[in-house]
Design brief:
Elements (H helix, E strand, L loop, with lengths): L2 H29 L2 E4 L2 H11 L4 E4 L14 H8 L3 E4 L7 H9 L5 E4 L9 H18 L4 H26 L8 E5 L3 H7 L2 E6 L7 H13 L4 E5 L8 H7 L2 E5 L12 H17 L1
Parallel strand pairs: 1-2, 1-3, 3-4, 5-6, 5-7, 7-8
Helix pairs in contact: 2-5, 3-4, 5-6, 6-10, 8-9
Length: 281
Amino acid sequence: MNRPKLILISVLLLCLSLASILGGCSETNTSKPKVVTSTSLIAFIAEQVAGDLVEIVNIIPPAQCPGHFDVKPSDIQSLSDADLFLIHGWQGETFAAELIGSANNPDLIVVTIGTTGNWMTPSVQAEASDEITAALCQVDSQNSSVYEESAADYVAAVTAKGEAILADIASADLSQINVLCADQQAGFVAWTGLNIIAIFGRPDSLTPQVVQDLVDQGVEGNVTLIIDNLQSGQDAGAGIAEELGCSRIILSNFPGGFDNTETWEKAIDRNIELILEAVAS
């Protein structure tokens, strides 16, 4: 074979190799949907359902209140090339419309998860899982069966976890413990069986008269525990607890709110641990 012909063949083989490599890179980059979530509540469930089939980017840190979140340039960038944006649609998520507009992504699918109630509660966690799964199937229909199977397994695990917790805390007879509770924790606290005498809002809603009314209700209701919410003003009930001379704990509504609670299971275990420690003291 003459030299010019050999060089031509070598060049053609090199071009074919480069085309194969570049084609493989292109397919990898475009085949995995990018999902942006507004909170760790949604992000964690999406991870359980989709695994490594999607790229998940969460926006609001788990210890921060969604109502006090400021959009960063990196958040806009994350949404600009995303396929799906999953949000709660809570009143406090006022940043979402601004973020969506700034991202200027005409192909973005925005899904509001309509699940209401405290997501730390097993039944609410399961309901949210179904909604998030439906959204993932919408943006990636070819993997729908995988998502649905994973979701069914996760819901079963959540249900079993909830039943196990209730069985474990039954002996504590929490219905005999009277509490004043942050409104964002009321659903979860009621699920544990604790007796809620009254609820209170964020620190900026606690006027002197409101605090006095809560103290009066606490005295009348023989309240022995104040429960604050980490994400909506963790010291809201501190003054009330001081006036009543009772214990106070802070619970989290999001996976990752406390150290080593990056999963829903670990987060709910930590909340239960805090409750049991308080009622035992």
